[in-house]
Design a protein that fits this description.
alpha/beta, two-stranded antiparallel ribbon, globular
């Protein structure tokens, strides 16, 4: 008989041989920023998550400073939308304004935190799709220069990294070439490499006001039934120059995360998306689960499956809970 229970007999033994831990330095907090003044609006479907106006971002920045997580990923809700999503590449758009504010805030604090700009058109287009529409379909190639322009605007405003999330073919290369051409060859690109067309995005679309006004995104986001295709997408982003690859969503795709880890030597990110977050919040509010234990278990699973970076709305809560232990 192998008595494997021997090494579980005490807390000290369990801690000594634990194979995986959640590192706060690997956590990134998504943050929604909107136009206006003195705004802090809770997202109804995401308890504890807010949309901030730029002048209120100091509140979340201070929490990030105290927690010591890796940084922030910014999503913008513009004042106006149009068919080409021009707010995404406006040099004075809501995300560039937020980047300049946060860059100065962290500089005054004497701290260096990662500012990541999500690059997509869906929050900025009147139709809610991630690219330019032509005869009701997203025109992949016509959308690439707009994504490249959005990435350049974000980097000029202070982004330390850009993360194209539209699943347009060739978007990583288009952004890499645009940044290099303008002297930003040292800015990394995090590809949303395997982003699935998922029902788990519902609360995010409430937060970002980005639901499609017609059709859906199944023609460009991945079919959730396909795993091998996800690896082809990762290979493509790596070939195009991605510095980090990602699997999104995270919780229902741990098989893809593990396969990606076995396939690439690049840093691997996962996005613990809004629907995953909201399910936990809803069940915890009913007293059906222990939120602290569930969150730690799920975050640990992401790292155990092979992720190096976890983008999660739980980031600040998790660090606080660990410090209270």
């Amino acid at each position: 008989m192998q008595r494997l229970r021997r090494m579980r007999a005490s807390t000290v033994l369990r801690e000594m041989v634990a194979e995986t831990s959640v590192k706060k330095e690997g956590l990134i907090l998504p943050v929604f920023v909107t136009f206006g003044k003195d705004k802090k609006e809770e997202v109804p479907s995401m308890p504890g998550v807010y949309r901030y106006s730029v002048d209120r971002l100091g509140e979340v920045a201070e929490q990030v400073l105290q927690a010591g997580i890796a940084g922030i990923m910014l999503f913008g809700i513009p004042e106006h939308k149009d068919e080409r999503g021009s707010g995404a590449y406006d040099a004075d758009g809501v995300v560039p304004q937020a980047l300049r504010f946060l860059k100065e805030y962290f500089k005054k604090a004497g701290k260096s935190f990662l500012l990541v700009a999500d690059i997509c058109l869906c929050e900025y287009t009147s139709h809610g799709h991630c690219g330019v529409l032509r005869e009701g379909e997203v025109d992949n190639d016509a959308s690439l220069p707009l994504h490249a322009a959005a990435a350049l605007a974000a980097v000029r405003a202070g982004a330390d990294m850009v993360a194209p999330s539209s699943m347009m073919d060739g978007v990583v290369r288009a952004i890499r070439e645009e940044l290099d051409k303008n002297g930003f060859e040292n800015i990394p690109v995090m590809g949303y490499s395997a982003k699935f067309a998922s029902a788990f995005y519902g609360p995010f679309r409430d937060a970002a006001d980005s639901a499609p006004q017609c059709g859906d995104r199944k023609s460009y986001q991945m079919d959730f039934r396909n795993g091998r295709e996800a690896l082809r997408e990762l290979d493509s982003d790596e070939t195009e120059g991605a510095d980090i690859v990602m699997v999104k969503p995270a919780l229902s795709y741990l098989d893809v995360v593990a396969a990606a880890r076995a396939r690439t030597l690049l840093p691997l990110a996962v996005y613990n998306v809004s629907g995953e977050y909201s399910m936990i919040k809803a069940a915890a509010a009913q007293g059906w689960i222990d939120e602290k234990r569930i969150v730690k278990e799920i975050l640990t699973a992401f790292f155990r499956a092979g992720a190096d970076i976890v983008i999660t709305y739980h980031a600040l809560d998790f660090v606080r809970w660990e410090e209270e232990r």
